[in-house]
Structure formats: structure tokens, C-alpha cells
Amino acid sequence: MAALDSTTIVAVFAHPDDEVMGSGGTLAKHAEHGRVVAICATRGELGEISDPSLATPENLGEVRERELLDAYAVLGINDVRFLDYRDSGMAGTEGNNDPSAFMNADPEEAVAKIVKVLREVGPAVVITFEKTGGYGHPDHLAVHRFTTDAFQAASDPNSYPELGEAIAPGRLVYAGFPRSLMKAMFGRAKDAGEDVGFFSELDIDQLGLPDDALDFVLNVREMADRKLAAMRTHRTQFQEGGLVSRIPEEVREDFVSHEYFQFGGGVPFDGDRPGNDLFA
């Protein structure tokens, strides 16, 4: 069984911009002294276009790929890989029916793609979405399932033997948001009559995870400016003066300065909490 690289994190998310929201500060902080390998399942082809001068529906995937690479560069990360699936769109939309949509991926194929990377780089820590994906996007749910299965398969010599030697078990953590924070960010704005985009169609009381379901919080205050700068590279998704800028200042400060995680499996932490270190 191959040894792990104790300095490496693999982050697996569904769309460009997912990487910044829940774990951008953590990834940037780690990139200063370790290695981060980023995997993105799609190019976000069905995302919003905040300004029609930035992209068209036909080239949005290409534009968002560039935005993602720029965002990761801001975070200090340059190893970015795509699984080459298509964005599924929000639940109940036409994009769900596309055979190439990530939500419709053959599970064995999708898991194998992730296992291949995990066995190649041997990460000590793997990060992906928690089981709700924050707000139930089909691709967020899929990346949670496939990454969880890949994490388990990567250390099993009987799984995907054609993809190389199994690696020693590492640690899986899920990035998420406490429900109280989601309600403070979007529920308060919605109640005040603010435009909260697609969140207006969702049950605010079901966003994120119950606070006590999240196991630990990392303080990334020193990376807050870099996290915001990375978010701004996703220009098609976040316009100046948009929803994030209208969130009450104290709530926005919490959102950019703290990141919330749930232990997903593998090597347990020393003690109940990791402090400010996913490798503890």
C-alpha cells in the first residue's frame, strides 16, 4: 500500500466558484506551505451570467473555466483538473435531462476518475461538499457521493486495481455551512425584501446543516482578503453590488473569516477538535 503525502490536500467540487465559498481560505492557507490539487467536475455551463458582456450561454463553460483558474491562482493553487462532465443545472430544470450532466454520470466511471487522482497524489486530506451540498444542487449532491465512494475505494486494493496501487487511508472532511449562518445571510435579506436570486425559491430553513452537525470551524481571517479576491474573479457569477455585498457586515465577516467542516471518515483527529489544522 502506497504511503500518503502528508503535505497534500485534494479538493473536489462541482462547479467553478464552489471552491471559494466554503473552503477558499483553508485551501489558500494550506497552499502557503503544502500542496493543493483541485478537481472540478464541470465547467459550470448552466450558471448565471451577471453581465451579458462577459459571456454567452454558448461560451459560458469556457469563460468559467478561465475564472476558476484565475481564482485558484489567487489562492496560490495551480494544479487544477477537470472531470469533464456538464453542469446539470438547478434541480427540476431542463439541464437535468442531459445525458452528459454530472448528476447522470455513471457512478463507477465518476468514482474511477477521482480514485485515479487520489492514488496518483496520495493526499492526507480530501475535501468535498457535505451531503446537502449547501442548498441541494444536484451536482453538489453527486460530488459528495462520488468523492466519498472514491475516498473509500482509493485505499481498497480490491477496488479499481487497474488504476494503480492502493494508498493508505487518509482523512475525509466535508465543507459546509451552519444553518444559522445561511439563515442570517439569506433569510434576513429575503425577509427585508432583498433580491436573493435562486435562494428565493428555496426553503431558507433547510439550507446548510444544523449547527450541531458540523464538527469544527477553522479561523481563516488572515486569508479573508484573498478569499474575497478569488470570489471576484468569478465575474459571471458575482457582480459588484450583488447579494454578497448586501449581506449585513457582521454576517459577511463571519462568512469570509470562518470555514465550517464535518468529519467524513478515515483517520480520526487527535482529540475532539483539530484546532486550526486539518492534518492534526
How do the helices and strands follow one another from N- to C-terminus? EHEHEHEHEHEHHHE
Secondary structure category: alpha/beta
Low-pLDDT windows of residues = none
Largest sheet: 7 strands, mixed
Continuous helix count: 8
How far is the first residue's CA from the last residue's CA?
A: 22 Å
User: What fraction of the residues are assigned to beta strands by DSSP?
Assistant: 15-25%
Mean pLDDT across the residues is 91
Quick recap:
The chain has 280 residues and is α/β, with parallel strands linked by helices.
Comma- or semicolon-separated keywords:
single chain, alpha/beta, 16% strand, 280 residues, seven-stranded mixed sheet, 7 strands
Explain how this protein is built.
The chain is of the alpha/beta class and 280 residues long. It has helices at residues 18-31, 60-74, 107-121, 138-154, 179-191, 224-233, 243-246, 249-257, and strands at 5-13, 35-40, 79-82, 123-129, 171-176, 216-219, 258-266. The protein has a seven-stranded mixed beta sheet, sandwiched between helices. Helix 1 (18-31) crosses helix 6 (224-233), helix 2 packs antiparallel against helix 6 and helix 3 (107-121) packs across helix 4. The longest helix has 17 residues, at 138-154. The protein is globular.
